[in-house]
């Protein structure tokens, strides 16, 4: 039981970070970022290149992932999303753009990094063994702790910094924020960069545990969508809740339902649909947000 | 119908039923039949997605219904020995019935919520196909016999092409009729403002489910046809990427135009095929073009013809 909870917590922290980025982008720009999973994969490959291939410290790789993705995110917002949002007559058009970007990133990753599964050497060795009730490798604990640390840092940033406040104002009411003198374009760009950065950060963190390969992008996006739906789209606390809930469900499901075959995700999907039928806006979302 | 419309339809029929086969006969590019058949079937499924767009919902779940229709038809043919021609409408009705059950709760969702749920639905369909015993898991159902009429054609590809093309014409004619009917106008009112529509007496729940089940019907028959052509079906036959592509077809053609999905499918599918020679850069060029197209024409291909706000904004 302890084992299941610890696994769930560890998974949940990673998931929450991914969902945070997605929900931030959605709250600020009303864009469903299909390319989120691909950004995650890109972050993983950057860390892999720096840490495993160039032999630099892991922290450098992590920072490089975050910075690369932030730059990529900012460029995507400025040169792709902004003009399309301005000119299209339906806001759903951004979904086509996002899907196009997802394909594009997939293609770039394939050309630059190849299609092989890549892993990196362990960052710390050893396993925590508590009486055989809880077995957890130290690197997982470290990565989980780093993820939780990032979440806390992100919340503090959104809560207390000037930039964070501006972005929250934008998410609440775009026009009102603009009237108060918030530079909408600038903060949309920062928000998108921040969201992409979080995806890259998780990629860099998780490459040490699960490795990384090209095919992980799509499923990651779907999981992120699910978490956002559980918690409510565009709500930061909801994304964190959604991430931890999905992490727990997955962990419990894998240990309880394993005797019936690989139906964990089927069960999660089915219960999600029932949940959404009862509460369409998710746990903490605004109705029809 | 006006004279121009009849003329346009006649020319279109002439092109797809006479000119295209002649062209292929002359050039000897028999592989085009398969490409064009796929385009016709994919555009049928995309037409369904388009209809859900028409009531103001973003549908990324058509892959689920195509998969369900395909499996339904395949199981009826292999287990019960029913003729394919009977299973084709049955598969459509089956998926329509399923979509009513699923649609009743999820159609209450809007915007990105609906989009995300339908995306998840595609994944659910794949996992269900893997888990159920009757679908034979990951091995899928293979060596399904060819439909009776098709086998008598000297070249089954030609037979499938005719069937798919005629099916496409019927579907789009029906869609055109539907959109320009009373129900179509009511659907447009849903797209603009559901509360307002409801307040003046439109039964929005009923209308939404009807539109969604028609959409799924089209997905089901397209899936069943595909299975008949490939003579096999696997859980991965229709997956998330396909669902996203159906949606892209609609976007690309333009959401304001009934024939948008047809054009979008043709351009996307042929574009992808033509880029095959570029080898490993295929995906890169394709996605770059997609992004570029979006930057230049955010409202779809058909919006070039009608730049005025009159026809384009809906």
Automatic annotation (TrEMBL), chain A:
Protein's cellular compartments: Cell membrane
Topological relation to the membrane, as annotated: Multi-pass membrane protein
Keyword set, alphabetical order: Amino-acid transport, Cell membrane, Membrane, Transmembrane, Transmembrane helix, Transport
Pfam families: BPD_transp_2
Superkingdom in the source lineage: Bacteria
GO terms for MF: transmembrane transporter activity
InterPro entries, A to Z: ABC_transp_permease, BCAA_transport_permease
Keyword flag DNA repair: no
TM segment ranges: 12-33, 54-76, 96-113, 141-160, 189-212, 224-248, 260-278
GO CC annotations on file: plasma membrane
GO BP annotations, alphabetical order: amino acid transport
PANTHER family documented for this protein: ABC TRANSPORTER PERMEASE PROTEIN, BRANCHED-CHAIN AMINO ACID TRANSPORT SYSTEM PERMEASE PROTEIN LIVH
Family of the protein in this entry: Belongs to the binding-protein-dependent transport system permease family. LivHM subfamily.
Full protein name: Branched-chain amino acid ABC transporter permease
UniProtKB/TrEMBL annotation, chain B:
Transmembrane regions listed in the UniProt entry: 7-26, 32-56, 63-82, 88-107, 158-179, 209-234, 246-272, 284-304
Keywords carried by this UniProt record: Cell membrane, Membrane, Transmembrane, Transmembrane helix
Bilayer topology term: Multi-pass membrane protein
Cellular-component GO terms for this entry: plasma membrane
Signal peptide: none
Domain of life: Bacteria
Subcellular location: Cell membrane
A GO MF label: branched-chain amino acid transmembrane transporter activity
Chief site of localization: membrane
Annotated protein name in UniProt: Branched-chain amino acid ABC transporter permease
Organism: Zhengella mangrovi
High-level lineage: Bacteria, Pseudomonadati, Pseudomonadota, Alphaproteobacteria, Hyphomicrobiales
């Amino acid at each position: 039981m302890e084992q299941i909870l610890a696994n769930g917590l560890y998974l949940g922290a990673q998931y929450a970070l991914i969902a945070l980025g997605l929900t931030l982008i959605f709250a600020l720009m009303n864009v469903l970022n299909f390319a989120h999973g691909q950004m995650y994969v890109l972050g993983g490959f950057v860390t892999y290149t720096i840490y495993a291939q160039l032999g630099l410290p892991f922290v450098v790789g992590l920072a490089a992932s975050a910075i690369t993705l932030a730059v990529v995110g900012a460029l995507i917002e400025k040169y792709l999303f902004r003009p399309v949002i301005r000119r299209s007559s339906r806001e759903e058009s951004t979904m086509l753009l996002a899907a196009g970007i997802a394909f594009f990133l997939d293609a770039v990753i394939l050309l630059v990094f190849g299609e092989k599964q890549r892993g990196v050497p362990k960052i710390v060795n050893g396993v925590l063994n508590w009486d055989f009730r809880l077995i957890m490798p130290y690197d997982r604990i470290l990565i989980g702790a780093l993820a939780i640390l990032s979440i806390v840092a992100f919340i503090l940033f959104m809560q207390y910094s000037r930039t964070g406040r501006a972005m929250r104002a934008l998410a609440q009411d775009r026009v009102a924020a603009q009237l108060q003198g918030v530079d909408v374009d600038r903060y949309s760009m920062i928000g998108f960069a921040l969201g992409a950065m979080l995806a890259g950060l998780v990629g860099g963190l998780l490459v040490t545990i699960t490795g990384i390969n090209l095919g992980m992008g799509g499923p990651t996006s779907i999981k992120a969508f699910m978490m956002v739906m559980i918690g409510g789209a565009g709500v930061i606390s909801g994304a964190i809740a959604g991430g931890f809930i999905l992490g727990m469900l997955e962990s419990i499901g894998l240990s309880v339902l394993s005797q019936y075959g690989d139906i964990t995700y089927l069960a999660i999907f089915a219960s999600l649909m029932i949940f959404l039928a009862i509460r369409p806006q998710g746990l903490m979302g605004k109705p029809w947000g | 119908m006006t004279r121009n419309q009849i003329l346009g339809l006649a020319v279109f029929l002439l092109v797809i039923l006479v000119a295209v086969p002649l062209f292929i006969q002359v050039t000897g590019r028999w592989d085009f039949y398969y490409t064009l058949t796929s385009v016709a079937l994919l555009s049928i499924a995309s037409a369904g997605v388009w209809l859900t767009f028409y009531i103001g919902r973003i549908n990324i779940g058509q892959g689920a219904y195509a998969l369900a229709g395909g499996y339904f038809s395949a199981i009826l043919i292999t287990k019960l020995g029913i003729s394919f021609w009977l299973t084709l409408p049955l598969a459509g009705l089956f998926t329509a019935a399923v979509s009513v059950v699923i649609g009743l709760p999820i159609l209450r969702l809007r915007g990105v919520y609906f989009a995300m749920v339908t995306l998840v639905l595609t994944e659910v369909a794949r996992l269900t196909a893997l888990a159920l015993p009757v679908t034979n898991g990951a091995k899928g159902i293979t060596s399904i016999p060819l439909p009776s009429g098709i086998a008598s054609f000297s070249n089954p590809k030609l037979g499938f092409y005719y069937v798919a093309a005629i099916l496409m014409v019927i579907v789009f004619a029906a869609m055109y009729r539907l959109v320009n009917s009373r129900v179509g106008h009511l659907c447009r009112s849903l797209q603009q403002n559901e509360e307002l529509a409801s307040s003046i007496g439109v039964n929005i729940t009923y209308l939404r489910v009807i539109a969604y089940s028609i959409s799924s019907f089209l997905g089901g028959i397209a899936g069943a046809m595909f299975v008949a052509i490939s003579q096999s079906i696997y859980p991965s036959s229709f997956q998330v990427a396909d669902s996203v592509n159906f949606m892209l077809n609609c976007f690309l053609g333009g959401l304001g135009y009934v024939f948008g999905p047809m054009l979008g499918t043709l351009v996307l599918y042929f574009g992808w095929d033509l880029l095959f020679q570029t080898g490993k850069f295929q995906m890169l060029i394709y996605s770059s073009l997609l992004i570029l197209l979006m930057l230049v024409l955010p409202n779809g291909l058909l919006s070039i013809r009608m730049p005025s706000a009159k026809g384009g904004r809906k």
